Amino acid sequence: xxxxxxxxxxxxxxxxxxxxxxxxxxxDIGSFFxxxxxxxxxxxxxxxxxLMADTGIDVTQWLVDRLQxxxxxGSIKNEKQLxxxxxxxxxxxxxxxxxxxxxxxxxxxxxxxxxxVNGVGKTTTIGKMAMRFKREGKSVxxxxxxxFRAAATQQLTTWAERAxxxxxxxxxxxxxxxxxxxxxxxxxxxxxxxxxxxxxxxxHTQSHLMDELRKIKRVVQKHDPYAPHxxxxxxxxxxxxxxLNQAVQFHEAIGxxxxxxxxxxxxxxxxxxxxxxxxxxxxxxxxxxGEGIEDLEPFDAKTYAQALIGD
Length: 311
Prior knowledge:
By secondary structure, the protein is an alpha/beta fold. It has helices at 2-17, 42-52, 56-73, 79-94, 122-135, 150-163, 176-190, 207-220, 241-254, 272-280, 301-309, and strands spanning 33-34, 37-38, 110-115, 140-145, 167-168, 194-199, 230-236, 258-262, 284-288, 296-298. Helix 9 (241-254) links the parallel strand 7 (230-236) and strand 8. The two termini are 23 Å apart. Residues 1-5 have low confidence and may be disordered.
């Protein structure tokens, strides 16, 4: 009985936080119907909503075509059937990328790089992950690899204190690769399970900073040729199509293995998650649903679709 209760609790949280409970897709979906029949312009209205929600042209066309097929076949005749068709479509799109981050016990330390531009919630995400892993019984060390911004180490130190985990940091302007190399060495010596390495909040358009990320990877591979074991990009849902551009360019530059999407609680444009899923098919590890240390949840396609579409 515990699992259904946990799932119900997660669904309640998603519904209360996702777009403040006001779905960008299905608010007043009943208005698509007139006299129990779908309005002739209903799909056009829905297409506009999708585009305004930053789902992008590819996802929008795919969803509209799928719904049109259902209408043509007679399987979508009322609001309930439309909601169910939408829910099913979203699950089909998102389930392949709904892959929680699994940290195998035979890799120690497990080295997790976190990348992203300034302001997306990268440092906050690191702190929340540290707390989550610690509660799962794993030991964690943070590496303050963002040495380009004066406040970055201070912010990460604050999160380390909140999560109750150690942090390895050097002075502002220190070599990022050296900081992270030393952190991995320290984790080995102390038998620590996970190293979460912050990297500079660099713009995806700054090629010299992308080169620095590649350098960090090369240096850390002196410890472990298979490191880093996860290269996670954090993107902000409120930035819309720019988040997709960031994901594409980071992936091309450093080879991402996962994505975390933040600020889904404060935007009516959460459709960017759909766009990223369709374009890149990268695992979505976590979604950020608020500022609290508990507000980072593993992404689950069925829960997300249910919260978004409603009953």
